[in-house]
Amino acid sequence: MKNDFDLMVIGGGSGGLASAQRAAEYGANVAVIEQAPLGGTCVNVGCVPKKVMWYAAQHTSFHKLAADYGFDIKIKSHDWAQLKKKRDAYIKRLNGIYERNLKARNIQLIRGHAKFKNQSTVTVNDIDYSSQKIVIATGGKPIVPEISGGKLGIDSDGFFALDRCPSKVAIIGSGYIAVELAGVLAALGAKVSLFIRTKSLIRSFDAMLSEKLKSAMQHQGIKVIENVTPYSLEGLKNNLFLRSEDHEQFGSFEEIIWAVGRSPNTDNINLSATAVAVDKNAFITTDKFQETNITNIFAIGDVTGREALTPVAIAAGRRLSDRLFGGMSDRYLEYHTIPTVVFSHPPIGTVGITETMARKKFGDKIKIFTSSFTPMFYALSDEEDKIPTTMKLITLGDEQKVIGCHIIGDGADEMLQGFAVAIRKGLTKKDFDDTIAIHPTSAEELVTMR
Fold first, then answer.
1. What is the DSSP string of 24-42?
2. In Å, how far from its chain's centre is CA 313?
3. Measured distance CA(229)–CA(437) in Å, rounded
4. Is 78 known to be catalytic?
5. pTM
């Protein structure tokens, strides 16, 4: 086994693997250090298994509406255990694919927990490995608040370990993880209460998305309980209570799930041995080239606290290796107009800035276009079963350059990608209007709205 490399990547998640594989394509001698299954958060306890669960939840609504189209379908039960078994087997297959990909590119996989010895040396299982360049891609982990009884709850990792659907569950948090888990659990039969500190969900998103999502969740039977700051968790497993700072008690719940944010995995790699700088929340600080204050050490992905999205980590990792080993000296990731999707029910797609941000930055130079409608999918359904779609375009200046696109409704997750390209390229509302609509679709509203 080699002990000296051109590039050493600490962390076998999406970003780390992308950086390692791109470097190897340029002929670099590369190692990846990982103690857990390959793929990181996304593959093992994040976007991939989450999307599987989202698809499972979608089936409940499809079956509910099947009668509108003449089908006689009744759901007798749902086998959560079977779903979990098949989901976990799928993830395990992905782990194997990642490992085979490393082997095919002659990338050395070092199994174990890495700790820095100095700025160019890492120790794994009492063996020292050195490298000219080191990439930190250790990702993040869910936050569990340090309050009395906090560990009685589970986090998003614990959600994927559940072997059955809890009958009554509390989710604490207002971000995308909280609303996604709430939607899945409610669709699959749980009674869900969502506790938020303020009155708003997904607060960093456009206010329209927050408002419409809350309405949809409440329509689905999810209780959204506002202005609750957790003080303690109490009780025994399957009989848990949440107590707020104003001494109000909620319960009982079979499970309480924390979804209050994530912190970086920087506390257990002996980072102090390198003098690499971190911010007040322990995220590693980098420049636009992903370079830390130590010239041979780089960081990508969630550990940097910048746009915690798998495609962002992959793009940053590949661009970094393009620069370090591919001769592209000015190659870096531009962290703007990054599209993202929330797999809520219904899903959300968003790219560009929010209306609030636009008005603050540009004042009366912006113009807003909106559309709200019922998708044709619900044309044969009773009114109470219909889920509306709402869209918003934000434009700037006399030329009406599109600087924001926000969608909530069925298909938002799939339709956004092409519009993200258009917005990144600086297209205008006229460019949108001059594009022939595809009819009948929901997406056509984005090129026909007035």
1. HHTT--EEEEESS-TBHHH
2. 11
3. 47
4. no
5. 0.96
The 10s digit of each residue's pLDDT in 326-368 is 999 999 999 989 999 999 999 999 999 999 999 999 999 999 9
Task: Specify whether 62 is located in the same domain as 166.
Answer: no
Instruction: Give SS3 for 270.
Output: coil
Q: Where are the beta strands (DSSP E) in 60-187?
A: 108-111, 114-118, 121-124, 127-136, 140-142, 168-172
288-295 contacts at long range (C-beta below 8 A, 24 or more positions apart): 288/332, 288/333, 289/320, 289/323, 289/332, 290/135, 290/316, 290/319, 290/320, 290/332, 290/333, 292/136, 294/119
| pLDDT value for 385 | 84
The C-alpha atoms of residue 204 and residue 184 are separated, in whole angstroms, by: 22
- State whether 198 and 81 are in the same domain: no
Q: Please report whether residue 53 resides in a domain.
A: yes
Tokens of 311: 């495609």
Q: CA-to-CA distance for 388 and 209, rounded, in angstroms?
A: 12
Task: Tell me the pLDDT band of 2, cut-offs 50, 70 and 90.
Answer: confident
Are 15 and 35 found together in one domain? yes
The whole-number pLDDT of residue 75 equals 86
Strand, helix or coil for residue 284:
strand
Q: How many domains does the chain have?
A: 3
Rg of the Cα atoms in the chain = 24
Model confidence pLDDT, tens digit, residues 6-48: 999 999 999 999 999 999 999 999 999 999 999 999 999 999 9
Amino acid at 383: E
If asked whether residues 239 and 176 sit together in one domain, one would say: yes
